[in-house]
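Appendix C: a fully annotated inverse folding record. The material below is reproduced so that readers can follow the format used throughout the book. The structure is listed first as tokens, followed by the designed sequence.
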């Protein structure tokens, strides 16, 4: 039986795609620089090898070249061709011909020459890794980094490349976690925790990041520690504080905390006797939680009049008035305020210029907000350690900058005795 087949009249035409934005943005300067990159890198590699062998390509060995065999200046050996290497830099992807050579060793053998400029298995320049990591830190996930850097790297960056680049940060992270704090002139600490969701055993799990900010004698805030823990228990905070003292942190002169019971217990065990300020913002939220919503506006007005009064005498008078009023109107609110005790007003023991910065843990709260904004594109982070590393890297890379505390010029003044009479 005869089979009939049909053949196309001609080869299929390539499918035409619509031009996309930036396709016609030709830059002659970029094109000129990138077209010369390959020659420049290959010249660098050749010159490095020439310096090691003490002779140019096809050149003869100098009479005294072997006197110091085995050293960088006097090594002897021979070339044996080239091999192709792929390299990704801020100039884009490029294929370079890497020279090869065998160097003689003192025991009569040979060893492969390795470039110091372009290390073995290196596929990206350090500058390219820095751009990739900075883009990731700026607030995007690993998949979106590839799209964001397509124009710069010519589509040569995958999500796996971003992940591998990010893992290189771990070396710096480990060094930061073990650095000595003995020379840090810390006079004040701000301690607080935040909750993030990470993937543990393939399940989304909430963990706590315990953060410690220090204030130096010149008023500059600095991140001292960030640890991932299962919660804000006394044991968790105690391990953080013990680590700080083990690394040489001096006894602080003033502490600002969020009021968590676990943190209070840990502080009592490590730095008993140091003045502690309980965050007035956290206490305000506690008061509102003890009252129906219709009373929130009135409670807020009375509380702010008390906390933000101009002098300690006014604060004392308004505190007594607050307690008398709310004992009658809604006793749970008055009881909640009394529960805070003297720690809610420790800021009055400092010079008045410092009250604004000493009343709350807002310095850490702002970091928490920026961190949450940064991870919004990643609903669940890959691991608990990644969460802590990311928080640290945002500060270490300059993505977030911290200024000096208000009233820093008076930080040398020591806290005075409690000026407020807590008797209602």
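Designed amino acids, in order:
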């Amino acid at each position: 039986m005869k089979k009939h087949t049909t053949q196309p009249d001609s080869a299929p035409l390539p499918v035409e795609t619509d031009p996309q934005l930036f396709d016609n943005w030709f830059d002659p300067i970029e094109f000129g620089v990138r077209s010369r990159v390959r020659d420049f890198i290959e010249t660098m590699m050749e010159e490095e090898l020439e310096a090691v062998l003490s002779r140019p390509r096809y050149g003869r060995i100098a009479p005294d070249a072997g006197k110091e065999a085995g050293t960088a200046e006097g090594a002897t050996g021979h070339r044996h061709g080239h091999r192709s290497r792929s390299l990704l830099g801020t100039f884009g992807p490029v294929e370079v011909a890497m020279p090869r050579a065998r160097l003689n060793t003192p025991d009569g053998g040979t060893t492969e020459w390795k470039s110091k400029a372009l290390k073995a298995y290196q596929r990206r320049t350090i500058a390219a890794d820095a751009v990739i990591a900075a883009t990731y830190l700026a607030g995007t996930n690993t998949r979106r980094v590839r799209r964001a850097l397509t124009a710069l790297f010519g589509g040569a960056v995958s999500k796996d490349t971003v992940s591998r680049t990010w893992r290189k940060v771990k070396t710096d992270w480990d060094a930061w976690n073990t650095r000595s704090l003995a020379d840090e002139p810390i006079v004040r600490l701000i301690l607080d925790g935040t909750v993030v969701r990470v993937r543990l055993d393939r399940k989304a799990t909430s963990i706590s990041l315990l953060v410690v900010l220090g204030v130096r004698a010149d008023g500059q805030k600095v991140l001292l520690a960030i640890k991932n823990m299962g919660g804000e228990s006394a044991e968790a905070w105690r391990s953080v504080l013990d680590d700080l003292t083990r690394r040489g942190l001096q006894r602080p002169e003033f502490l600002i905390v969020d009021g968590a019971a676990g943190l209070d217990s840990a502080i009592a065990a490590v730095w008993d006797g140091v003045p502690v300020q309980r965050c007035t913002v956290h206490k305000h939220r506690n008061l509102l939680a003890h009252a129906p919503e219709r009373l929130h506006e009135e409670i807020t007005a009375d509380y702010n009049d008390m906390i933000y009064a101009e002098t300690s005498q006014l604060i004392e008078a308004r505190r007594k008035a607050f307690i008398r009023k709310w004992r009658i109107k809604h006793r749970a609110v008055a009881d909640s305020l009394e529960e805070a005790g003297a720690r809610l007003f420790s800021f009055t023991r400092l010079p008045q210029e410092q009250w604004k910065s000493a009343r709350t843990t807002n310095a850490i709260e702002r970091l928490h907000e920026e961190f949450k904004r940064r991870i919004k594109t990643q609903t669940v982070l890959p691991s608990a350690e990644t969460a802590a590393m990311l928080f640290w890297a945002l500060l270490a890379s300059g993505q977030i900058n911290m200024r000096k505390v208000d009233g820093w010029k008076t930080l040398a003044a020591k806290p005075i005795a409690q000026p407020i009479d807590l008797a209602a």
